[in-house]
Amino acid sequence: MTILAIDQGTTSTRAIVFDESLRPLTTAQCEFKQHFPRSGWVEHDAREIWATVEQTVTKAAADHRIQAIGITNQRETVVLWDRKTGEPLHNAIVWQDRRTARFCEELHAGGHEARITEATGLLIDPYFSATKLKWLLDEVPDARARAERGELAFGTIDSFLIWKLTGGAHVTDATNACRTMLYNIGTQGWDAEICALLDIPMTLLPEVLDNAAEFGTTGILGYDVPILGVAGDQQAATIGQACFRPGMLKSTYGTGCFALLNTGAERCASSHRLLTTIAYRLDGEVTYALEGSIFVAGAVVQWLRDSLGIIQDAAETQALAEQADPNQEIVLVPAFTGLGAPWWQPDTRGAMFGLTRGTGPAEFARAALESVGYQTRDLLQAMRADWSGSADVLRVDGGMARSDWAMQFLADILGAQVDRPQVTETTALGAAWLAGMKAGLCGGMEDFAQSWDLERRFDPRMEEAERDRRYALWTRAVKATVGV
């Protein structure tokens, strides 16, 4: 009895087969090309993404009989495709893309943010899908006219993959829909007023389902398999970390870093520029969360490797950081694609402070890892200020969570315990549980929560005065970078 999780991420696609006890059996992974046509623009070829799904699914499931499929995906990334052929009209515009920053400024100036935030829980920012979709409709030849004739379909990556897998099911789930800046998280429906404001035909939009639901059936493996679970990657990780109680908090360190605090049935409005979002929707019941988004986390390690050539492999970063000169206090603000929460500065670019003639690869590596810890503290301080409840120990996952050095620094700079589970790739695990639970192969929420297993707890070692002094250096560096 096996479950297949498709984990479509920002830089690669993975397919993982789990047994009914949610133990991983086989994995296949395939990277794909990143396209940067202009400064601040980031695109993917959606056809290449689909090809990586076909490759990894076929390879991972070759020796298994799959009973159910779960999908998790990079959120906010936009695809616009032809309903007849399934072919994209343009490269997918990635969540990191900043090309609509000027239009977002116009929406701000027009006084629209209060209405959009009240409806969607989001801030006006190029990060979200809505302005990306508007750009495609405005800039791709004949796209708007074709959309108005009902010839085109819009979707986030999950929706595009489901269309391709099923041969035409146009659906999404509540956690992906709520990241578009078009979905009303109070009424649980597409917001006609916002769609009209952005001149987006509502016929483009997919049907929105619960996270565990019947999304369609695929024959990609040569036999029919139902797709029964879908969640955006950060919500899937929240589920995979079993953060089912209000106050439970997780932070995922992938390309970016995303912290979600479960606030239960309470929709908590932020006064510190965090996002109010849907953690999950099961059996029609919505659980909300506060979310803080960091655009560059694991991507800063990729920068060390691909742009600077300091490392050949991400695993080398920890050893370098350990060798760094403790007397050099280098601060890196990795605003390569702007700053996310709580700053929300799309036009800011990266900066480094404290350089000396002795600064070398080790100091760069340490500053890169520390930048992720500092940004996480920004998020958690804002969450604690916004929410009246008490937050539990932070649960971490994602590729960077495997670094003991980075997680110890995180505990130190937060002054709080950090828990790392046995399974750090919890995004795929969350998608697998949703599908397995819907199929009746896995237990319910309580059983799944009890199966969560701690691998290591990191306790803070840094003195409070030193923690505050170092965080003040970070805050000063960010303000200098932003120009405030």
TrEMBL record:
Stored CDD domains: FGGY_EcGK_like (cd07786)
Domain of life: Bacteria
Reactions listed under catalytic activity: glycerol + ATP = sn-glycerol 3-phosphate + ADP + H(+)
Gene Ontology annotations of biological process type: glycerol catabolic process; glycerol-3-phosphate metabolic process
This protein's record includes keyword Kinase: yes
EC number: 2.7.1.30
One cellular component term from this protein's GO annotations in UniProt: cytosol
Keywords: ATP-binding, Glycerol metabolism, Kinase, Nucleotide-binding, Transferase
Domain Carbohydrate kinase FGGY N-terminal: 3-240
Domain Carbohydrate kinase FGGY C-terminal, residue spans: 250-438
Pathway: Polyol metabolism; glycerol degradation via glycerol kinase pathway; sn-glycerol 3-phosphate from glycerol: step 1/1
Enzyme class, first EC level, given as a word: transferase
Keyword Kinase appears in the UniProt entry: yes
A single GO molecular function term of this UniProt record: glycerol kinase activity
Family the entry assigns: Belongs to the FGGY kinase family.
Name of this protein: glycerol kinase
Organism lineage string: Bacteria, Pseudomonadati, Pseudomonadota, Alphaproteobacteria, Rhodobacterales
This protein's encoding gene: glpK
